[in-house]
Amino acid sequence: MEKKNDEGRDAKMFYSITEVAQILNIPASTLRYWEKELPSVNPRKSKGGTRKYTAEDIQELRLIYRLVKQEGHTIEGTKKRLQRRRLPEMKKQDALDRLYAVRSELMGIIDELDKIIPNE
Start and end of every HTH merR-type domain (predicted)? Predict the structure, then answer.
């Protein structure tokens, strides 16, 4: 059974810039512009430089479309909104990284103590 996306189309692993432009009903040049201006738009590229968009990329582009085309945000305003959205994720990851570092350090201390203190 084929997977279906939100529009009922067969889900694919990758979409071309032409397909994404058709899905969003915008010119391919707009997608290239957003890619240049917005760090969150970063499709994979083939060795030949052909853009390969994933379903996740399309979801991000739908959000950008809503912010720019429907809500009237500038590209700079959209960039700020997207960065703010990622801030909690970044803070969470930073906290996790610190916790893993502390855990690693504590495990090292435990190992050293095990060497010094004989087991009873």
Answer: 14-84
Length of the chain: 120
| Residue 57: burial class (beta carbons within 10 Å; 0-12, 13-18, 19+) | buried
Report the distance separating Cα 67 and Cα 82, nearest Å. 10
pLDDT tens digits, one per residue of 33-87: 999 999 889 899 989 999 999 999 999 999 999 999 999 999 999 988 888 876 6
> Yes or no: is domain 17-86 CATH 1.10.4160.10?
no
Q: Is the full-model pTM beyond 0.90?
A: no
Residue among 44, 82, 49 nearest 63 (CA): 82
Residue 98 near residue 91 (C-beta atoms within 8 A): no
